[in-house]
Amino acid sequence: MGDVIHSYVDEAGDPILFGRKRGSGPIVGTEGCSNFFFMGKLEVDDPELLSSKLSTLRLELIADPYFAGVESFKPERKRTAHGFHANNDLPEVRYLVFKLLREMGAAVRFHAVIADKTILAREEMKRREVDPKARYQENSLYDVLIRELYGKFHRLADEYHIWVARRGKSDRNKALKEAIEHAERDFEARFGFSRNAEWHINVSDPNATVCLQAVDYFLWALQRFYERKEARFLDMMWPQIGEIHDLHHGNAGGVFFKGQDRPTLESAFPRKYEDKKKPRI
């Protein structure tokens, strides 16, 4: 058997640009609507080991009297008692999960793509001026970011096993496979050869596929940086981050943060949108 890469994919933020009522304008950045949309993948060398470590930690915390009676630990709340989720977990829990992930070292590697929704909304408004019947499709942004994640020259393998976090009640397995097929064509056009790999795509829930809980934590750290300008979580996990592609920062094509070129609050903010030409998604 050749090389196999196991990767776990999730999103952060939301792909919403406009209000739900027909003819509504942009609502990016308003209460309940994020400024950015993030797509991340976590490559895991030994999924069984990481799953075991996370599950063991969760069971230890459930048995710890310190957390007795805490709302997020009550089984009926379906939060930490069922699985880790950075946005719902207590700060004490969050620290322990981050510590566990950091201790995994190079056995886990995170990559992400970021779309700036303010720019996307402006591009979409321009498109509507040309074609009033044009309608923005939220799933199209999701699929484009999947293509961006898997169309890059990251580690090569003979087989790719991908687990994607289910979005709500929908199972978009067919659309995901099409996005991966597009990514393969993008890769071949960009680099001049095909990976000739087998792709196995699964849509799952974080409680069933525990490694999806780990990618959620990396995405949460990235989202805190962009949405709240809080750098400490991203800085903590940076040694395990392979690449962050900010599609709408800097020149056309965006900026790649990796290695020594990590994003800082000084380099990433403030952003000036008005006079820069940005790629359309």
* Number of structural domains: 1
Number of helices: 8
| CATH arch. level architecture | 2-Layer Sandwich
Number of strands: 7
Report the CATH C-level class.
Answer: Alpha Beta
Low-confidence stretches: 272-281
What would your notes on this structure say?
The chain has eight helices and seven strands, in the order E-E-H-H-E-H-H-E-H-E-H-H-E-E-H. It has a seven-stranded mixed β-sheet. Helix 1 runs antiparallel to helix 2 and helix 4 crosses helix 5. With 281 residues, the protein is α/β, with parallel strands linked by helices. It is 37% helix and 18% strand. It has a single domain, classed as Ribonuclease H-like superfamily/Ribonuclease H (Nucleotidyltransferase, domain 5, 2-Layer Sandwich). It starts with a strand and ends in a 13-residue tail after the last helix.
